[in-house]
Amino acid sequence: MSTNNDRLSDKERALITAARQSLAAKGAKADATDAAPAKFTATGQAGIVAPPVAPSTAPPVISKTASSPVSRPAAPAMDAAARIALLMQAEREANEARKQRLRRWGIHVPLGILILLVLWAAATTLRQVLR
After folding, report:
1. How far is the C-alpha of 47 from the C-alpha of 40, rounded, in Å?
2. 34-54: pLDDT as tens digits
3. Res 39: pLDDT
4. Stretches in the chain below the pLDDT threshold 50
5. Does the CA dihedral 118-120-124-129 come out positive or negative?
6. How many C-beta neighbours within 10 Å does residue 12 have?
7. Do residues 72 and 61 make contact, with C-beta atoms less than 8 angstroms apart?
8. CA 27 to CA 78: how far, in whole Å?
9. Is the pTM here over 0.70, yes or no?
10. Rg of the chain in Å (alpha carbons)
11. Is 39 helix (H, G, I), strand (E, B) or coil?
């Protein structure tokens, strides 16, 4: 699946990169567990030695004030799809709040300028009429 990275913000790129790294680490850990070599003990019995446990592969938290991701302590075990769904829901909520703020300023500022212009025009016209 290819994405058009030119249209993504830095925050969105960081979210996608974190999700891909998380999924890759999870897949690598599953492959390493499946392919663990059998070691023989002194008595001749085969025992499977577990591979070393990797540090937490939780995706980084995206800071709202900084442009770089900030690492966080390990989160409770969660399905990758559920974690991505939570990240995307938080991003949707932030995007909706941003759109509402832009709509509010996009209406109020021009309306205020228009009202000032109408008041100025009315005052100028009244001054000329009353002379």
Report:
1. 6
2. 555 555 445 444 554 444 545
3. 52
4. 1, 40-41, 43-45, 48-51, 53
5. positive
6. 16
7. yes
8. 14
9. no
10. 29
11. strand
